Amino acid sequence: MTRPLIIVGASGHLRDLTFILESRPSEWDVAGVLDDNPDLHGKLCAGAVVLGDVRTWPSYADHWMLVAIGSPRVRRR
Description:
By secondary structure, the protein is α/β, with parallel strands linked by helices. Helix content is about 20%, strand content about 30%. The chain is built from two helices and five strands. Strands 3-4-2-1-5 form a five-stranded mixed β-sheet, covered by helices on one side.
């Protein structure tokens, strides 16, 4: 059974993580990405659709979450 996963952050770190997750397709189902850049909303990034802002995470409370933000300053914010 696969576990639904939301990835937070649609930058270079996302590409690295999706590459790793693709090696375990029976374990994780990437449901989408959350990112604060409105230009990315609704678009595909590394094979996953950007669902909306990070603030919408409570809508996905039944999913696992993985933070793919490489910058410590942005991650802290």
